[in-house]
Amino acid sequence: MVARVVNIGHGLLGGRCSTVADWMRRRLSALWYKGLVGLLGPLLTMIKVMIVDDQPLVRQGLTSLISLEDDLQLVGEASNGREAISLCSQLNPDVILMDILMPGCDGVEATREIVARNPNVKVVMLTTFDEDEYILDSLKAGASGYLLKDTTADDLSAAIRVTHHGHTQLGPTIGPKVLARLKPFVSRPETNALQFMSEREQEILSLIGKGLSNKEIASQLHITEGTVKNHVSSVLTQLGVRDRTQAALWAKEHLG
Predict the structure, then answer these.
(1) Domain spans, the chain
(2) Tens digits of per-residue pLDDT, 139-170?
(3) CA dihedral 163, 168, 170, 174 (to 10 degrees)
(4) Does residue 127 surpass a pLDDT of 70?
(5) Mean pLDDT across the stretch 114-126?
(6) Which of 117, 109, 114 is CA-nearest to residue 96?
(7) Residues 65-101 pLDDT 10s
């Protein structure tokens, strides 16, 4: 049984670098960012992160990754869901990286209880399983994100920030699975489509109508391009159109 409270530290370079050039690019980028952090200092808001996984090596790898990010602070670790529930009440983390299959209390049940007790805590499922059942059960339990463990270090760090700011983050292979399961529920007249969209989806639809690309939308809304892609896919499904060109035409006709 492992439940550990930790303080932020600086570890070794996390993740895999396929080439020397890639390693140098990441190091230079990190040095530039650390220099910027030195200037901004107190203006940065630290995001408190907790890791929940029954594999010590996974926890160690995630700890190293988080230690490289100056705006992320690791506040605790747990090896199963029950420990996570107890620690969450003590540490009040902003974001929890949660495994699914763990002994005793699994990640889905832990997420359900944590979110019910602490609505402001964001849970990102980080697992090796991409089966529909796990994905949907996790989202129904209140998870704000679902990523696979082969997610790159940069994408995982970005996902922590995105979910901390109230957005949903799904892995590139996860989003289509969720949308496919939702299709039977979105066969509705196009004139009523807007009432079933979130405010964010309506905002993105409006920007699509103005001809903005995913990259431009991401920049304007201060979210990742991957998040924009997920929202665009959802918008296309809800409108019942095949591509963003048709969505743009729909937006011009109905949104002005």
Answers:
(1) 3-169, 186-255
(2) 888 999 999 999 999 999 999 999 999 888 99
(3) 150
(4) yes
(5) 94
(6) 114
(7) 999 998 999 999 999 999 999 999 999 999 999 999 9
- Predicted confidence at residue 23, as pLDDT, reads 47
Q: Which class does domain 3-169 fall in?
A: alpha beta
Cβ of 108: how many Cβ atoms within 10 Å? Answer: 23
Whether residue 35 is predicted with pLDDT greater than 70 in this model: the reply is no
**What is the DSSP track for the chain?**
--EE-------SPPS--SSHHHHHHHHHHHHHHHHHHHHHGGGSPPEEEEEE-S-HHHHHHHHHHHHT-TTEEEEEEESSHHHHHHHHHHH--SEEEE-S--SSS-HHHHHHHHHHH-TT-EEEEEES---HHHHHHHHHHT-SEEEETT--HHHHHHHHHHHHTT--EE-TTHHHHHHHHHGGG----GGGGGGGS-HHHHHHHHHHHTT--HHHHHHHHTS-HHHHHHHHHHHHHHHT-SSHHHHHHHHHHHH-
Q: What is the CATH number of domain 186-255?
A: 1.10.10.10
Closest CA to 244 of 232, 228, 234, 226: 232
In the block, residue with structure tokens 């998040």: 227
Contacts of 29 (CB under 8 A, 6+ apart): none
User: CA 85: distance to chain centroid?
Assistant: 20
Which residues, listed in sequence order, are joined to residue 48 by a DSSP beta bridge?
73
| Short-list 167, 84, 166, 183, CA closest to 132 | 183
